[in-house]
Amino acid sequence: xxxxxxxxxxxxxxxxxxxxxxxxxxxxxxxxxxxxxxxxxxxxxxxxxxxxxxxxxxxxxxxxxxxxxxxxxxxxxxxxxxxxxxxxxxxxxxxxxxxxxxxxxxxxxxxxxxxxxxxxxxxxxxxxxxxxxxxxxxxxxxxxxxxxxxxxxxxxxxxxxxxxxxxxxxxxxxxxxxxxxxxxxxxxxxxxxxxxxxxxxxxxxxxxxxxxxxxxxxxxxxxxxxxxxxxxxxxxxxxxxxxxxxxxxxxxxxxxxxxxxxxxxxxxxxxxxxxxxxxxxxxxxxxxxxxxxxxxxxxxxxxxxxxxxxxxxxxxxxxxxxxxxxxxxxxxxxxxxxxxxxxxxxxxxxxxxxxxxxxxxxxxxxxxxxxxxxxxxxxxx
Length: 381
Description:
Layout: H1 7-14, E1 17-18, E2 23-26, E3 29-31, H2 35-42, H3 57-68, E4 75-77, E5 80-83, E6 85-86, E7 89-91, H4 92-101, H5 105-120, E8 129-130, H6 149-164, H7 176-186, E9 193-194, E10 207-208, H8 215-230, E11 257-261, E12 264-268, E13 292-294, E14 303-305, H9 311-315, H10 324-327, H11 341-346
Antiparallel strand pairs: 1-2, 2-3, 4-5, 6-7, 7-8, 9-10, 11-12, 13-14
Helix pairs in contact: 1-8, 4-5
């Protein structure tokens, strides 16, 4: 299990996630995980080729058979009694073992990277399964460093956060190490101890996350986190944890438009989070919206559909780059907004989760579960 994760803390933030804007709605306005956050926290590339390759379910399944050189309808064998391919996902541990058995260096590396990526950036809700779409980006080893892995991981996490907000959802997946480290960066109230490290190291590896008990204690922590978040002010946030210029070397962080991982596309709008760039928050314009979307309570048929032309937006970075100085001006103090922003925000969101008198949650709580399987290691490309 992911023993370094505080699922109660993550659940408290999921309750505040708004999938229409891909931002957390807090008592003081919006805040989100941005591309320069991914860069600093994980140290993986956020610029490069958009991860927009797709394939049909039948093609993905066929690719899995070609990867392991076996029928994926058969059982894995050994200590595993399950099939290689089940419910649209591939058996992880069996794949790692099979990669070594093939005695083909390229296949062994491909299987290893498949398991690594599926255990870190693109974690599935199951405990021992991998999304076959990951393999689409591993087939040509020469292109591995061409992709915007960080943007793909963020798109995938945005989607999983959206699914987790549905009433029928009982778990959370995606790169939860990114989410938890992001919380530590921006919210000093929740920070554990931190190790010193070199400036170029992934900041996620610096946090010493304590191992926390589950059960009743986890539910009590969740209630406490809800109350603490309800009482937060904008001055309690470290708006620029990497320094006022922490985004300047990551121009892609100012891109506006959809980001993608295979068939998943999610809107990305830095104008809603200007304080994270050291600029005064204004009332944002309407976002670029999907052609169609369907987010049922169960989350099992969660669909966000974008027209194919939106893929061109990523390549047109000059036209799609937010001009900070045109949109706003640098903050005189870190939490600054235009005067009318808070009133505008409060008419479009309810910024508190618990009732002010009885402490009862106003929204359905996300059930606290340990999800996915062992975090193998934080990779760098």
